[in-house]
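Methods — Computational structure assignment.
A single polypeptide chain was analysed. Its primary sequence is given first, followed by the predicted tertiary structure written as structure tokens.
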Amino acid sequence: MVKRLKRPRDPVSLAKMIGDIATGQVQDAQPDDGKNPAAVALGKLGGAKGGKARAASLSADARSAIARRAAKKRWSD
């Protein structure tokens, strides 16, 4: 759903708004992606530190095993 500015009932104000939209001074329609901005920010926060935390908790042998499986999968037919 796209949210757009409410149109004024006054013809002069409506004409001014249409002119502002046409010249790009005001942005009329803003796409609503349906996502909660707070949830998006929280997800980015967790995603930014998740990989580093996982890498720090893995042992060298575990990291090597994961890398070996990834390489085998990447180069297999």
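Note: The chain has one domain: 2-75.
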